[in-house]
Write a structure and sequence with these properties.
By secondary structure, the chain is α+β, with helices and mostly antiparallel strands. It is built from 7 helices and 16 strands. The strands form 4 sheets. It has a 5-stranded antiparallel sheet with strand order 8-7-9-15-16. Strand 4 and strand 5 form a beta hairpin. The structure holds cobalt (II) ion (CO). Cobalt (II) ion (CO) binds next to strand 5.
Amino acid sequence: MDDSVYEKYKLAGEVAADARNYGVGLIKPGVSLLEVAESVESRILDHGAGLAFPVNISINEVAAHYTPKYNDVRVFKKGDVVKLDVGAHVDGYIADTAVTVEVGAHVYTDMIKAAGDALDTAIGLMKPGVDLSMVGKAVEETIAGYGYKPVDNLTGHSLKQYILHAGISVPSVYEISSRVKPKADDVLAVEPFVSNGAGHVVSGGGSNIYRCNPGIRLKLVRDQRSRKLFNDLVREFKTLPFAQRWFEKLFKNNSDIVLRRLSFYGFIKHYPQLVDAKKGVVTQKEHTVIITQDGCEVTTL
Ligand code: CO
């Protein structure tokens, strides 16, 4: 890997890890999700990195993909099991890291530990040429050892410049289809999810998270205003996810109506929340790693 690219991945990792730890310290009963999301994002920007995606704050049965709206009034409650998922980038080189916090209680300590243990297991196996289906198997067994299920349809993912899902998936279960093997210098976000419910997520309500659709054929859409907005969005975010909150600030528009129109034309895609199919509680831990000659280096410690 080019030295300057390596330094950018390392810096993104340091900034993301710092912001994640800072966010953990803010999560308390009565504090608003919006305040935590915005404080963590400011922390990333203050350290000179960009936002690789909106801070995700997913609670209890919601495994992933929720960020507060600009006017969100929701607050953390005692007993909430919170997944705080943070992404920073430097010149498009991304660090993606997440941790689970139980608010003011210790009911799910074991499930939180299971996610951490599963992550350590996966990281311990990462090296060039590793069979990712065997990594998935080891993760699955680690989680089963705690008496829980891995979420079988959420995976880790490779990262490339400005690309959050670059083609390689890291499963949390044995999957015969995982044929692509990582090689040295590949960068992967590894993120086992643990469930005490179905161990499978389905689409839920809105996440307030969007992403531009680079495949759109602009010429087919006659609405000039939407085309211009789309071009502005691509310039700002490329294909990285963005929040309804950010859109609101950038364009001072009625974001609900405009975003709905852009979705209608296919300019942008809206992510649904990912919810355990049996409403079980979900925990998660995530680090980003660079594959080295004989193992991997974690960037988000
Ligand atoms: Co993440």
